[in-house]
Write a structure and sequence with these properties.
- Helix content is 17%, strand content 25%.
- The chain has 186 residues and is of the alpha+beta class.
- The protein folds into 2 domains: 74 residues, no CATH class; 92 residues, D-Amino Acid Oxidase, subunit A, domain 2 (D-Amino Acid Oxidase, Chain A, domain 2, 2-Layer Sandwich).
- Strands 4, 5, 6, 7 and 8 form a 5-stranded antiparallel beta sheet that branches.
- A hairpin with a 7-residue loop joins strand 1 and strand 2.
- The longest helix is centred in the C-terminal third of the chain and has 13 residues.
- It is elongated.
- 19% of the residues are buried.
- The structure holds flavin-adenine dinucleotide (FAD).
- Flavin-adenine dinucleotide binds next to strand 8.
Length: 186
């Protein structure tokens, strides 16, 4: 039985339930009565900031992905459909969800971008936007794989809970879907 938290107190029954709640994954699992609380991994917030190139044409047509940094994929380059060049995301560990981009982080961006584009002029980067990765590892710890918690692990029939679906979770989404379908059929 799944009870929804809406005004009508709607409820329904299902034999299968998959939770994929991103930053709310831990809260979601904690709200599932028989789910063993001890299995819920600690949530860490890995904010990723972006800076945009202003006043200049995008320097490259293709994506540039330098080698990963510890704990994340690292600052890469992309040109969006409107032709704007963007750099990011970096990795900033934060304690709460807040999305302001600190202009002071520009300094580390100049250093990161000049590793693959030495010609980046001073003053060309402006704060753009940010996102927060739902990490299940903290600073200095090795990045684990996605956590797909199935009945064999937690004992609740028909339930799969996903944790730590951070980058490259979008790229991996079809593979994740296939894996989950396979486990639900097992
Ligand atoms: C800065 C940054 C850069 C990234 N770059 C890349 C990249 O280049 N390539 C890549 O592959 N991936 C990237 N990712 C990762 C990618 O965005 C995620 O892996 C992907 O969005 C995960 O999808 P999801 O559906 O699991 O979670 P989310 O997209 O977070 O969606 C979770 C959903 O659950 C909903 N929800 C939460 N609680 C409840 C509840 N109680 N009831 C119902 N719904 C609920 C939320 O509203 C939300 O809609 C990046 C992430 C960040 C933060």
């Amino acid at each position: 039985m799944v009870r929804l938290g809406d005004a009508d107190g709607a409820r329904f029954t299902t034999r299968r339930l998959v939770t994929a709640a991103g930053l709310a994954a831990q809260a979601c699992a904690a709200a599932i009565a028989p789910y063993p609380a001890a299995r819920i991994p600690k949530r860490h917030l890995g904010k990723g900031n972006y800076f945009a190139l202003s006043g200049l044409k995008a320097p490259f047509r293709r994506l540039i992905y330098p080698p990963p940094i510890p704990g994340a994929l690292g600052t890469h380059y992309r040109r969006d459909l409107g032709g704007v060049a963007r750099f990011g995301p970096d990795l900033q560990w934060v304690e709460e969800e807040e999305y302001r981009v600190d202009p002071a982080r520009a300094e580390s961006f100049y250093a990161a971008v000049r590793r693959f584009w030495p010609g980046l002029p001073d003053g060309a980067l402006t704060p753009d936007y940010s996102g927060i990765r739902p990490k299940i590892h903290g600073p200095g710890e090795p990045q684990p794989d996605f956590m797909i918690d199935d009945p064999a692990a937690h004992g609740v029939e028909g339930l799969i809970c996903l944790f730590g679906i951070e980058s490259p979770g979008l790229t991996a989404s079809l593979a994740l879907g296939e894996e989950i379908a396979t486990r639900l059929r097992a």
